[in-house]
Design a protein that fits this description.
The chain is mainly α. The chain has one domain. Helices cover 79% and strands 0% of the residues. The chain contains 18 helices and no strands. Helix 1 runs parallel beside helix 12 and helix 5 crosses helix 17. The protein is globular, with a radius of gyration of 22 Å.
């Protein structure tokens, strides 16, 4: 229901704004911009889907090899004590637990090309357990909310942009981004647990979250003194090594268990191809709506409304020039990146606003895109409280980003 309302709001709101621009401000090209955006975003949606075909085909094939070789079952047993507390509807040692574990690991390591196929595989396995196929289950909702929180240990992409624009210390947004995204993830977990009555104080949950916190502190400690060039090299080396390690281990374990690896791979690859094509309608619907609203000037009006609201309650509006990055990140990753670059160009890459926009970009995920792709892959239409919890997590990450950026770059 919520996703349906958001979709209608983006399209009808964008059209209404364009009408106002034409009638009252005589901007005769307003409708041209909207129509152009419709065709561009529809084409972009198909390009994204086609671009996923190769990646999806490969990783789905590899996952089938892992299933046949018993590695997914092994990962399910390892993750079962923790995941069964958060996902009580998933049977112990179910393959979905292993797929989710791999998806979360790939996201944390910034391995986007691997994370999406692994996540879509997990969604299909969760859909098999879903008693109402067109309505999101509790397990699917929590899985997607945690995905939309987007915990990434090192925001390599943002730091690379800062370095290319001449930042004195491109990595200085590392710790603020890590703190903001961790806070967003925590709030996402709490919000969803409130709806689903999950006990977050269970021993297994507390131990796992504590271990994650220790791992984040350890990563920070060992990367604190690295230069931006060295950090990028180390991150790239480690990321590429992990991808190759996934491939070699999956194939090696299956071969040792005398599985017909090639046939298993081909069988899984066919599923990946079908999944890539099936998400096209969902991508077209969401990206076209976002494009219409953005082309109409709706985002700029939302920013003005926020500024007026903050001024009304006597709150400083010094962060407003960076807010378009935060707003756009919920809708579009590429759009948010463009907004971030614009802020850095206008105000300076090492300015408070330039750094804040970088923290915004690295601390959250494209919630609407994630929902469209993941739910589209399993033809779920009714998303229940997924969007609500995802937007709560986005809002928490935005607030945390502002707070930690002021502490690190301005000082309270």
């Amino acid at each position: 229901m919520a996703l349906n309302l958001i979709w209608l709001f983006l399209i009808l709101g964008g059209f209404l704004i364009a009408c106002i621009r034409v009638v009252f401000f005589h901007e005769l090209s307003a409708f041209d911009s909207l129509v152009k955006s419709v065709f561009e975003m529809a084409e972009t949606s198909v390009k994204i889907s086609i671009g996923l075909v190769g990646t999806m085909t490969f990783w789905m094939g590899l996952m089938r090899v892992g299933e046949k070789g018993g590695l997914i079952s092994f990962l399910s047993r390892i993750s079962s004590p923790f995941f069964t507390k958060l996902f009580p509807d998933i049977p112990k040692n179910h393959p979905a637990l292993g797929s989710m574990m791999m998806n979360f690991s790939a996201n944390m390591l910034g391995l986007d090309n691997a994370a999406t196929p692994l996540g879509l595989k997990a969604m299909k396995e969760l859909q098999e357990l879903n008693p109402v196929k067109d309505t999101a289950s509790d397990a699917q909702i929590l899985f997607l909310v945690l995905n939309s929180a987007g915990l990434t240990i090192i925001p390599v992409g943002v730091m690379a942009v800062r370095a290319s624009m001449g930042a004195q210390n491109p990595t200085d947004i590392f710790l603020p981004t890590l703190l903001a995204t961790a806070f967003g993830l925590l709030i996402a977990l709490v919000a969803t647990s409130f709806f689903q009555k999950i006990n977050l104080l269970a021993k297994e949950v507390m131990i796992t979250l504590g271990a994650l916190a220790i791992a984040l502190v350890t990563v920070f400690y060992f990367t604190l003194d690295l230069s931006s060039e060295r950090l990028e090299q180390v991150t790239s080396l480690f990321g590429n090594f992990m991808i190759l390690l996934f491939i070699v281990v999956f194939l090696g374990v299956a071969a040792l268990r005398r599985q017909y690896v090639y046939a298993d791979f081909i069988e899984g690859s066919k599923e990946g191809f079908q999944t890539s094509i099936s998400i096209i309608p969902y991508l077209v619907a969401m990206l076209v709506a976002i494009g219409i609203f953005r082309a109409s000037g709706g985002l700029e009006l939302a920013l003005v409304a926020v500024e007026k609201l903050l001024a009304l309650v006597h709150i400083h509006t010094d962060v407003l020039p960076a807010m378009p990055t935060a707003f756009m990140k919920t809708l579009s990753g590429s759009g948010a990146r463009a907004m971030m670059v614009e802020v850095m160009k206008t105000h300076g890459v090492d300015s408070f606003l330039g750094r804040l926009s970088g923290v915004f970009q690295g601390s959250s995920e494209t919630t609407l895109y994630v929902l469209a792709v993941y739910y589209g892959s399993v033809q779920v239409r009714y998303t229940r409280h997924t969007l609500t919890c995802g937007l709560i997590a986005d809002a928490a990450a935005i607030v945390a980003s502002i707070f930690v950026a002021k502490i690190f770059f301005v000082g309270f």
